[in-house]
Amino acid sequence: MNDGGLIRTQPPTAPMRGFESSLPIALLRARQATAHKFKPHTDAVGLTQPQWRVIRALAAGEPMDVATLARRCALMQPSVSRLLTGLQERGLIETVAGPDARRRVLALTGEGQRLFDRIAVISEAVYRDIEEVYGREELARLVEMLVRLREVAEGLPDLPRVMPDLG
37-155 domain in CATH 1.10.10.10? Predict the structure, then answer.
């Protein structure tokens, strides 16, 4: 037990689960397989997947600062800062006045919105293909379950709540 009394130890009870049963591997494989279906139409217009996520996030119409974009797009803030430069150079996003002059707030330009509108049509067709095979309700439920999994994982401590006895 640690000095705060939060982490208990217990003897290992079972061998490590098999590689094919690994949650992180299953999630990575599902992400790769699904992202691959959306990639051709972003590649065709010269966008990376992270750039598309930023455009998609801004397409809701609400200007966002870099930190908010990073969180919303599941990207590291330095990565977002770098990719914003390319999007601004292409005239797809712009800096707009925000509530706080110290933070950079970004929005889609008209050109960025037109590009989003064009790609969104194809993206929705990909979603329809997935829904047709996987099931619309099942896909909605999967997304709900993944949101819940993320919330649970974010709420857990970094170390196991019950630490196996390694000694």
Answer: yes
Domain ranges for the chain, please list them.
Answer: 37-155
Residue 62 has pLDDT above 60, yes or no: yes
Helix or strand run (H / E) with residue 155: helix 136-155
The H or E element that residue 105 is part of is strand 105-108
Q: At what angle do helices 110-134 and 49-58 cross, to 10 degrees?
A: 110
Q: 10 Å Cβ neighbour count for 107? A: 18
The tokens describing 57, both together, are 């996030």
pLDDT (mean) for 58-85:
93
Q: φ, ψ for residue 5 (rounded to 5)?
A: 75, 10
Give the 3-state secondary structure of 27-57: HHHHHHHHHHHHHHHHHCCCCCHHHHHHHHH
Contacts of 41 (CB under 8 A, 6+ apart): 119, 122, 123, 126
Q: What is the pTM of this model?
A: 0.80
Q: Match 């990207």 to its residue by tokens.
A: 75
Query: Which phi and psi angles does 26 have, rounded to 5°?
Result: -60, -40
pLDDT band at 104; cut points 50, 70, 90 = confident
For residues 84-95, average pLDDT = 95
